[in-house]
Structure formats: C-alpha cells, structure tokens
Structures
1.
Amino acid sequence: MLGLVVTLLIIALIAAVLGFGGIAFAAVEIAKIVFFVALILFLIALVFGAMRGPGPAV
C-alpha cells in the first residue's frame, strides 16, 4: 500500500514538472488518502495485536 503512495507521488512530481497541474494535484490527493488508510489500518492492527497479548512460548 505504501508502494502505491510512493508511485503516486512520483507520478505527481513528473506531472508537475511537465506542467500538468491538475493531474499532479489529483495524484497527490489520492496518495494522501491511501497513506492515511494505510496508517489507520496499521494502528488498528497495532491495537488488536496489543490486546491479544504475547504469543505462545516456543
């Protein structure tokens, strides 16, 4: 998911350099949304992992 964010930011950078402001703006906004979704999913996984406790001793 974070790879998608990096890809969209690279597309936005290239589009901005070439003068496509609208495409660059859209790519940055999509990258922001995907980043925050990934961040929220990570935090949810972190909370549920902490609630579950340590795994079995090996």
Note: Residues 3 and 43 are 18 Å apart (CA to CA).
2.
Amino acid sequence: MQHASSARWLLWVGIAASLGRCTVLGDEALFPQKDVPPKPASDATGDGASVIKAVPDAVQAIFTASCLGAGCHSGASPQSKLGLDDAETSYKALVGVSALGKPGAIRVKPKDAASSYLMLKLDGTAQPMMPLGRPPLSAAQLATVKAWIDALEDTAPVPNDVVQPADPGAVTPDPGPSDAPTVPDPEVPANVQAIFAKSCGFVGCHGGPNATSGLRLDSAAESWKTTVNVPALAGAGKLRIVPKDPDASYLVQKLTGVALPMMPQGGKLDPADLQVIVDWVKTLELPIGPGNDLVTPVDTGPPDVGPVDAGPVDAGPVDSGPDIVFVVTPTPKAVQDIFDDKCTPSCHSGVNPSNGLNLESGKSAASLIGKKADSKLYFVLPGDPSQSELYLKVTGVSKPTMPLGKPLLEQEAQDTIKNWIKSL
C-alpha cells in the first residue's frame, strides 16, 4: 500500500512538471487556438498597426541643411505641400507621392532614383533646380539621396505606409469623403514656372512672403494663386492673367511693355520665354473643383460683381484703415546731394519721374516719407531703415537694386541715408 501511494505521488509530480513547461513554451504552443490572431511582426506596434516609416538620418540631414526655412519646405504651409521638417514627415511627403509640378511624376519612386522627380529637381534635369536660391547639392549629397531611393523597398500596399489595421479584412472601408482622391491645387506648368523663377521669383522681387505687390512667382502653386484671374493692384480693373486672352492679361502687358514700367525691371524676357507664357495663357483652362479661391468663371455673371471685384481684395488693409500722419521735413543736404548725383539726372525727376518718385531738391522728402512703394513697404518709414524700401534698394537687399543698372552706392552714402531715416 505504501509502495502504491509513492507511485501515485511520483505520477502527479511528473504531470505537474510537464504542465509547468507551459510557462516556457507559451499557452499557444501546447493549446493552439485557431481564432487567435498572429503576433505583430517586429516592425509593428503592440496594437497591430504598421509603423510610419522615415527617411535615413543621413538623407534627412541634407534636407534640413538645404531645404528648410521661411518660404521653403517647412512649417504649416510648405512649398508645393512638400514638408521636409523631420524624417517621418519627409517620408510621407515623398515616397510614392505624385509631384505637383509634373503630372504623372512621382517624387520618390522606390528602387528607381533615375525617374524620381526629387532627384530630377536636385540634379537640375528638371527646372527650376532645387534647392531654389541656394547652392546645389554636392556630388556626395546627391549620391546619398540616390542610394537611399535605389535601396527603398516598394512594400507598402497603401501610399507611404500610413498606419493601417494589421488585418484589413476585418475593417469595413469608409466610403465617405475621406476616401475620395485628393485633388491637388492648380499650378502653372513647369516650363512657365522655370521662367518666372529665374526672372522674377526671388526675395526682394516676386519671391517670399513679402513679394512685391503681393505677386509671388517663386513656386508653381503661388504663381497660379497670385496671377490667374487675380486683380492687378496697379492696373485698375485689370486681371493679371485672363485665361485664353494674353492681350487682356496685365502680366503679359507688363512683360511686353504695353503697360509700364516694363517687367522684369532692368531687362526684358527672351522672346522665346515670352512666347511660352503667351502660349500658356492662350490654352489656359480653369480647373473644376478646389483651387484658387479668387478664380471665378470668366464668361458668367456681371463683370463688376463677385469675388474678383469685391471683398477683401479691394477693401483690405492696403486701401483702408486709419490714416497714419507722417511729419515731412526737408531732406538734408548730404542726402539730397546723393539723390542729385545718382538718381535725378536720368530717372527720378521732371514731369513724369520713374514710378512717380521725384527726388529733386524740394520734392524728395514729400515723395519718400510715408509713401507706399509697390512692395507695400514705405519708401521711407521714419526711424526704421530696415522697413524702408529706399534703404533696402540702395543696399541691395531689395531687388531690383537702385540706382537701376548702376553699381550700388558706396558704404558712406548708404550710411548717410540710413542715419537720415533713423533720425526722422
């Protein structure tokens, strides 16, 4: 009896030891369940969702050094909706994403750097070359970006590996607006934008957030927004671009010299470039759907009714608001001597001075102090040279520089004008 009891005790010890192995093998190893979903892979989160991918540190370092900053590819409203602020943002904006500047092109196509629009812009194959207004990437930097693209795996079933449930079969697709394809904002064609960029789209002229006359020509999207069916500030009742009618388009009139002063200031477009712009306007079709909020059908509605001729465009802070009273004092002799030597002999004098700016003795102060320039800055803002268009022009900060077609003023002359403005 005692022997049998010992045997039963040994049997229970053996069973317990075998069951104890469950803690090592896991319950599913000994008791598989058909309905238990597989564990997420190493590139997934604990809740079974795919991880958002990111560009390599070496590539992001290039983007950070060359592409970020005001008016470029950073912030809440990056150029061409291409944000490169950080590695994840860059990946989502590039990989598998259609290029706004070239229909049918992909910004970064995995394993195919040669046809990726990003590479074409960086190496100058597609114009304007990027980074815009900055030194081009070095051969080593280009090679780094190229190697990353060529090594990319095209494994994402949805664009950019955006977080999706691990088991898409268990999810009912939402047929609502969120699944509708995104319609990109309209842009001017790449060949037209290349002309704008090289001739006008730089800071101090028609580039950046403080572009002259609010006319931005430094990106394809901004060029569309500020030209097509948009009223010209200087041409009363005229639109900068009238679709299908280059002769009535104020921008074309300025480029051809029909409207003065002719643009670009200090030169004129090559005839071939001008023809490209004219041909674009002739064939221009207004898009259906979202786009420039100033665009209205050209052939419908009363000509003087609607957003084009009413609302904030004609009633904003440029033309309304409390008046600022400026005290106009005579121009000091040292400053007037500079004007007489550099500005009045051929431009800013007489009955019809250039831009209506008469810098003759006895008239210069009234023409400058508290008077708005085309850039919406004052020619002279008392006490603040950095916000005075006159000072920005003669120091080369604002384009075109003054005196037009001549060397910049000597440092002593620049300082004389600066000190005069500060003393006002």
Note: The mean pLDDT is 74.
3.
Amino acid sequence: MRIGFKITLLFSVIGLLSVSIMGWISYQEGKNAIEKASFERLTSVKELKVKTN
C-alpha cells in the first residue's frame, strides 16, 4: 500500500473513532438528563398529591 493511502486511512479511522466516542458520551448525558428531569417531575407530582390529601 502507498503511504498516502495509509495516512488517509489512519486519519479516517481516528476521525470516525473520535466522532463515535463523542456521540456515545452525548447520548449518555442526554439520557441521564431526561431521566433526572422525569424523576424530578414525578417527585413534584407526588408532593402535590400529598399536600392536597
């Protein structure tokens, strides 16, 4: 293989790997944020029900 092709392939793999890692981290942070918001909403509904009873 030619050196230019090897370098291009290497940089492509590194770029794809970094994008994949950042996508996974963003997905996890988004999932955690949604779970936290849902839990807080459920907690506030629970507290409102306790106050009204």
Note: Residues 1-53 form one domain.
